[in-house]
Amino acid sequence: MVSLCSYCPLPSTKALQISPSFLFLRNPRFLPFTFSSILRRSSISSSAAKHREPIRTSYAGVQLEETVDEITQGKLRLDSWISSRIQGISRARVQSSIKSGLVTVNGRVVDKVSHSLRAGDKVNCVISDLQPLKAEPEDITLDIVFEDDHVLVVNKPPHMVVHPAPGNANGTLVNGVLHHCSLPTAALSEKEVLSDTEDVSGDEEGFYRGTSAGEASVRPGIVHRLDKGTSGLLVVAKFKQHTIQRVYISLTCGVPSANAGRVDVPIGRDSNNRIRMVAVPGLSHHGRARHAASRYKVIEVLAGGGSALVQWRLETGRTHQIRAHAKYIGIPLLGDEVYGGTKNMALSLLRPRTPPKYNAELSQLVSRLERPYLHALVLGFKHPHSGEKMQFSCPPPPDFREILSHLRQIGIEKPISKE
């Protein structure tokens, strides 16, 4: 596969202090390309209460016996309700227990995770033992940007899951990497198994570990993870590795009040929805929330202020960090149904600012939103063997470029710098 991505050594400060329109990365450094040049180059080619227990590290054998209270709105799924009653447990773990026949409703075994509960239903659940999850090598086409004996840089398409997880054991990036590196089946520990909603971009060890001299000498690992819906650059280290630079671009619902800024707000798990994180000031002193900091900069104001092209630079790497921080400052990512960037939200912001001649096109555009429009544009790291500072850039995929193009047609302006 011919890749549109590029590699360039980290440039000197002097050489790059040319124009403020260049992509800001690490103060006062700039990359030797602009957003427009990347996009132009790419266009050439085509709320229930919790079960009051401390957060556990192991859930095997935990038993729940409760009666469902009055249901205030809509349908209530069995897996969702159980997850809300046992603090800290993943929905995937609950689903595994349900499928194993360990859950009864009114005395009858129910093995359908989406079973609808009614007020007064008596639920009995025993959490099953965690079964080891194995990643099998699969012949999956990967868009490899760079590879040597030590690292592998991949341009991940949207909708590809990075790590195998319960209910999603095949077709992941890890499966493809195992095959590409000619490695045997890899076992993932409970700590390493994440749902496809995770976006842990921190410096973490990889998923494959040899423990003796007789085991594989090549041990690739996902240094940082990207959401299932997020596209862009991801590094796989054949030995332990740390990223030093990660820059993303996104399309947002609305425009932030300040054209550039730093969001320094801790992020923790939303107590009402396990698959969602929440940014709350002061939360780092409570529970399992962790320090999180992101810098953002508005590159283009789109559709009269109904949307924006925003650059993000991460100082930390937390689950859903950009998505949670974007919601916190009032600009959820376009297409991000989990964090408020819904189709209705997009329409409510775009329609009043769109000339009537674009109304039909706008409705079609919003109807096609199917993921959070977030792309890992730039990736930098120090090579584990040579020590060279390496840097890669990769344009966003066609769906991102198409949405951006339509929004630009409605209206585009550069943000006004405030002195």
Helix content: 10-25%
CATH class label of the largest domain: Alpha Beta
Task: Calculate Rg over CA atoms.
Answer: 23 Å
Poorly predicted runs: 10-33, 41-53, 190-219
Q: Give the quaternary arrangement of the chains.
A: single chain
What is the approximate shape?
Answer: globular
CATH topology of the largest domain: Pseudouridine synthase
**What number of structural domains do the residues give?**
3
Q: Largest sheet at a glance?
A: 12 strands, mixed
**In what range is the share of β-strand residues?**
25-35%
Mean pLDDT: 77
CATH architecture of the largest domain: 2-Layer Sandwich
The strand count comes to: 22
CATH superfamily of the largest domain: Pseudouridine synthase
Gap between N and C termini: 46 Å
Counting helices, strands and paired strands, the structural category is alpha+beta
Number of helices: 9
Notes on the structure:
Residues 195-205 have a biased composition (Acidic residues). Residues 76-141 form the RNA-binding S4 domain. It is an enzyme of class 5 (isomerase). The chain has 419 residues and is α+β, with helices and mostly antiparallel strands. It has helices spanning 13-16, 35-44, 78-85, 91-99, 173-180, 321-328, 343-350, 359-367, 398-410, and strands at 6-7, 63-67, 76-77, 103-105, 108-109, 116-117, 122-126, 133-135, 144-147, 151-156, 186-188, 221-222, 231-237, 243-253, 260-264, 267-270, 273-279, 293-302, 307-314, 374-382, 389-393, 412-413. It folds into three domains: 63-126, Structural Genomics Hypothetical 15.5 Kd Protein In mrcA-pckA Intergenic Region, Chain A (Roll), CATH 3.10.290; 133-244, no CATH class; 245-413, Pseudouridine synthase (2-Layer Sandwich). It has nine helices and 22 strands. The strands form five sheets. Strands 1, 9, 10, 12, 13, 14, 15, 18, 19, 20, 21 and 22 form a twelve-stranded mixed β-sheet that branches. The protein is globular and about 65 Å long. The chain starts with 5 loop residues before the first strand and ends in a 6-residue tail after the last strand.
